[in-house]
Amino acid sequence: MKALVAHTYGPLESLEFTDxxxxxxxxxQLLVRMEAAALNAVDQVxxxxxxxxxxxxxxPFVPGVDVSGVIEAVGAGVTGFGTGESVIAWNGVxxxxxxxxxxxxxxxxxxxxxxxxxxxxxxxxPTAALTAAALLDLAGAAAGDTALVxxxxxxxxxxxxxxxxxxxxxxxxxxxxxxxEFLAGLGARYPIDYQHTDIAEEALRLVPGGVDVVFDLANAxxxxxxxxxxxxxxxxxxSPLRGPAAFERGVTAVYGGTTTPExxxxxxxxxxxxxELRTTIGADYPFAEARRALxxxxxxxxxxxxxxxx
Length: 310
Fold this sequence. Notes:
CATH architecture of the largest domain: Alpha-Beta Complex
Protein name: NADP-dependent oxidoreductase
Number of strands: 15
CATH topology of the largest domain: Quinone Oxidoreductase, Chain A, domain 1
Distance between the termini: 12 Å
Keywords: Oxidoreductase
Shape: globular
Radius of gyration: 19 Å
Number of domains: 2
CATH superfamily of the largest domain: Medium-chain alcohol dehydrogenases, catalytic domain
Strand content: 25-35%
Number of helices: 9
CATH class of the largest domain: Alpha Beta
InterPro entries: ADH-like_N, Chloroplast_QOR, ER, GroES-like_sf, NAD(P)-bd_dom_sf
Helix content: 25-40%
Structural class: alpha/beta
Order of helices and strands: EEEHEEEEHHEHEHEHEHEEHEHE
Organism: Streptomyces roseolus
EC number: 1.-.-.-
């Protein structure tokens, strides 16, 4: 099979298309013929080795954690999935989506792709929606609470705005000037242009005293203090990145990432197929241009998800 491969840690430009043996599903695994994949920030750090201490990979390494395709074969002991079914999955560090075939664990990280959801829409869903839902869980927010989403125009951010609005939160969301209408359409009560506005100052103007929770998807480390300034005393900052455990005024921080509770991916896919959870695809590339897709994703502002179709 053809695969986009990193033979060692290095820059994105070092990726090569390589012929690899077709994978064979082991116990509890699915062999998926790929129809679409989606790109994520984690792909870059796995390829370059930036996170090798916490997230090492084995080479040759095939990137791509978001899988959408058709099951070609199932391994021993698999239940709930059958040959010929369309499936979506979050593959985690295992990755493998940027190849003609991928192995997927038949766990809660995979779900049957419902009729009406295209292959690309299915690929755009797992990491973005699962991560957004996990961060919303960590926030412990209740209907009527105010929430600021920093980095709202990307894949995780656009899902988080929608899920937070669906949960009854009053959402402030940051994006570029030309993202404002898009964010409002997702459910943001107050879109904020981060290019021309100080985010914390604007949030405090809109919500005097501070928001109940900030979801910061863009900053890490000491830089998080700038957005923590928008949180009310005793409130909470939630991030998929890493930083201080607490900030001034008793603002606490909670850090977490993608989780796959039983049935959640299927439930999110059901929302997507009815349009209650929009999957925005800002750019789509053919598989032959997958390396360019990764470099563009790393260097350009692209609204929503970047997908690769086969």
